[in-house]
Amino acid sequence: xxxxxxxxxxxxxxxxxxxxxxxxxxxxxxxxxxxxxxxxxxxxxxxxxxxxxxxxxxxxxxxxxxxxxxxxxxxxxxxxxxxxxxxxxxx
Length: 91
Hints:
The structure is a single chain. The protein is of the alpha+beta class. The chain has a domain at 46-91. Helix content is 35%, strand content 9%. The chain is built from three helices and two strands, in the order βαααβ. It has helices spanning 29-37, 42-46, 50-67, and strands spanning 24-27, 85-88. Strands 1-2 form a two-stranded antiparallel sheet. The mean pLDDT is 92.
């Protein structure tokens, strides 16, 4: 699969007053798709400390390998995609 350099032109951009934001999670599609498929609440992800986020990424990777190596449950082009999670909450 080749990198599509025009993909960023399809990004969604939203602005919110910072006083309205109680948490935020940025996720690559490799993490987002598995989290959504496994029905893991995003609010739970947002509250995870760094060690739990690392464990979650490992769990997502293992789920792909052990539970769905051929993409039958969650169709995808390859067994593993990159997975990155960034969380933020105000002070």
